[in-house]
């Protein structure tokens, strides 16, 4: 049985992020890492968007970035000053190519294509079965989703599902210096729905229709919503669809185990998708950077939580409020952006705000509805414990 110091199970965003960040540590400590993934990543299968103050290690993979954002709804339309942040976009294809380049010719990092069939811990070792062959390691870092029994009597289960079209128009349709973060000027019947627009040039943009609900839509419903938005809001009748993307992101307050003995979970599998928004990329970067920092300082990767538990409570309260349908997501986000600076909101959504800043934000929102949602969720948890 071949032994590695660490095995990274899953070669998507989380696995590759950890592999890149861990390189200096394994080179300095003479450790060996196995990175295994089921398939090669050679297609532009997804897009990650995030905001940050300072460039990080994946800055070379950033495809576009914006200093200005806009927010729109039937209640509000405003341009947002997001300094000191920049809003950034990384395409899957660019991320995979960049990480492939960084991970190439690294003798202490072995890459293997195969299916992870089993992960487990015995005594002081972790094991991974790949295509029938067992490998051992001191620790396994896994982005393979855990199997969890749903408990709808206690927790909320939403999906953030979306379809995006990369379109090219005949005229100069877009302000390429300003991206649309949220535009709620679309039907809200299926759930909290908005469109974001990422302009790549004056006549090319990614237009993405996003819904928060408990079930996906029929394929034709996404197409109809995008067609209507492009025609009515962008005032564009002639355009070509260059690429399409579709995705589903879980949004839940169901607690997820972030470590089981010597198996440490990454990305969505470890609960690093923000329950109220679906943003994942930056939380992956914080978590993987913290793992490597802990390894360098102590030699083991066992971590405390990277964010205060109160942020999980905020996310859960919002999900419960959306489920209650007392007020719409459009109303909640409109009030938030109307009454608070974009900088404060982005810091809050990044789980980096102070308690005082959070109190200030909540004081501007629909206090009665949020208090009722918090109370009802607490009763729900306690009565089904």
List the helices and strands and how they pair.
Layout: E1 2-9, H1 13-29, E2 33-37, E3 47-52, E4 62-66, E5 68-72, E6 77-81, E7 86-91, H2 92-103, E8 109-113, E9 116-122, E10 125-130, E11 133-142, E12 157-169, E13 178-183, E14 192-201, E15 204-213, H3 219-232, E16 239-252, E17 259-260, E18 263-265, H4 281-298, H5 309-324, H6 329-339, H7 342-349, H8 355-363, H9 367-383
Parallel strand pairs: 1-2, 1-11, 2-8, 5-13, 11-18
Antiparallel strand pairs: 3-7, 4-7, 5-6, 9-10, 10-11, 12-15, 12-16, 13-14, 14-15, 17-18
Helix pairs in contact: 1-2, 1-4, 5-9
Largest sheet: number of strands, sense, barrel closure: 8 strands, mixed
- The low-pLDDT segments are none
Domains (count): 3
Which class do the helix and strand fractions yield? alpha/beta
Number of helices: 9
- Rounded mean pLDDT score: 94
CATH topology of the largest domain: FAD/NAD(P)-binding domain
Distance between the termini: 43 Å
Q: What is the helix content?
A: 25-40%
